[in-house]
Write a structure and sequence with these properties.
This protein has 581 residues and is an all-beta fold. 1% of the residues lie in helices and 44% in strands. 50% of the residues are buried.
Amino acid sequence: MRTTAWRASPHRVAARTFTAAAITAGVVTAAIAGRAYRVLPPPQSPPVNAREVSRVPHAPQPTGVRPQAPWVPDNGDGTYRNPIIFADYSDPDVVRAGDDYYLISSSFHSVPGIPVLQSPDLVNWRIIGHALTELPKPRYDTPQHGNGVWAPALRFHAGLFWVFFGDPDLGIFMTTAQDPRGPWAPLVLVREARGWIDPCPLWDDDGQAYLVHAWANSRAGFNSVLTVNRMSPDGRRLLDDGVTVFDGHATHPTIEGPKFYKRNGYYYIFAPAGGVKTGWQTVLRSRAVIGPYEDRIVLGQGSTEINGPHQGGWVETREGASWFVHFQDRDAYGRVVHLQPMMWRDDWPVIGREAGISGRGEPVLTWPVPKASTASRSGAVVPQTSDEFETPSLGLQWQWNANPSTRWWSLTAHPGALRLYAQPASAEAANLWPVPNLLFQKFPAPSFDVTTRLSVSALGRGESTGLLVMGSDYALVAVTRSEAGLAIEHRLCLGARGGERETIAPLVAIATEAVTLKVSVGAGAICRFAYSTDGRSFATVGKPFTARPGQWIGARVGMFASGPPGGRSGGYVDAEWFRIQ
């Protein structure tokens, strides 16, 4: 049996990390689909007192030159506007611990995975870490678009933060942390399975534990069904084969993404139905954990422009006020995050502003900011975007297209710059879709500008580097070196996911080895690329390009460095900064 490595986030104590796993000299092994995986324990970190979780400091504001954020949800007058995060944080879940709130989302094949965000008031969010530093090796050493982490659930229970998620091909996984910034414990394979997705745990008042999950039609051959399993209280294994508690085929097709709660003696399952773009939020209610469940639509688009307002989590403030966080699919911008007020009537939730049908809400665009403790409020903040590369580690906003290698980059080789080493292109790759060493972040607003300053003096012959907008189609502006010298090129690939080839516009020769590249993203995700040799005046390259989403994710913007196929690329580029405004 072949054994390969899977490095989880740093952890504190040795633990059995997979069902029927063996621990030998600190190395954990387990069989998944005929292949053995090892979890390699990272360096130990000082323990964190779980009782102090409410005092976890907020992510610091960046230092240096910081352009104004292109989307700020906090209006500054005690109200907010939706989306509260205009970025692709798909399938969000949220909890409160102490005075602060924590949010996670799907990350699919991007690495690091499962971003963790923190907020004092559910409106102002910063990224504070990731629950996963790698995905299973070698499976995710190459891009596996649309696979990986689907719809994770976040809970705070027994002094720990818990994350459960489904990989549609491998099964249900769990990890825990005392500090939401990490370190996170090695992953536990709760159930090896194919087609099990969107898990969420519930610990009952009597100490019993349960897990609800949905099904992926692409793997299981069916969907629109929710299943509840008995689970060990430590969250490490399921105790039965499960019971179907709801079949949504007739009235709630494509029901999935369940979140499990208990209130006033009722068990609740919050679950989206009707499809990503046009669906609604369903809530199921029962006096017994395995049903029968009543069903009700509690949130829909109504008369608003917010399509498909669903899939998210319910959270309460210290004062007992209820709120609901959900996503809205915005095509190339991904699944952006909204916050809705929520009230209870006759033990049913009403989400948003009630209009038309009794008990059914529709989304709000603006609303008063949830109450936050004075100590927690720190003014308007947004998830990180711009990066001056002033620290020895990558900013938390960055994700690679697959499990990264330290051969790809350095922040210490040239302090104050990100060095990207050109990697030889695969001879089999028709375009950049299957390339792992692409460094991305999410679109952060409806309209924004990205600029990056590159020093290309060490770029080798046949090597190129540039600024890229990636989805199922992509476009980029790049600097390339040939026998004739340095040149600017614009590449376009329509149908990248299907293996189509790039088209390359005529090259523009340049005489300088320091270049500023730019992309301006406007309404409708229309992108215009440009370059500057003096950092002040820009020349446009190529025609306007309309970004498209990738597989289950929005379009992304980022950088790359590559060399000719089969060669030994030895060159590199130094990115002095990457700014979004």
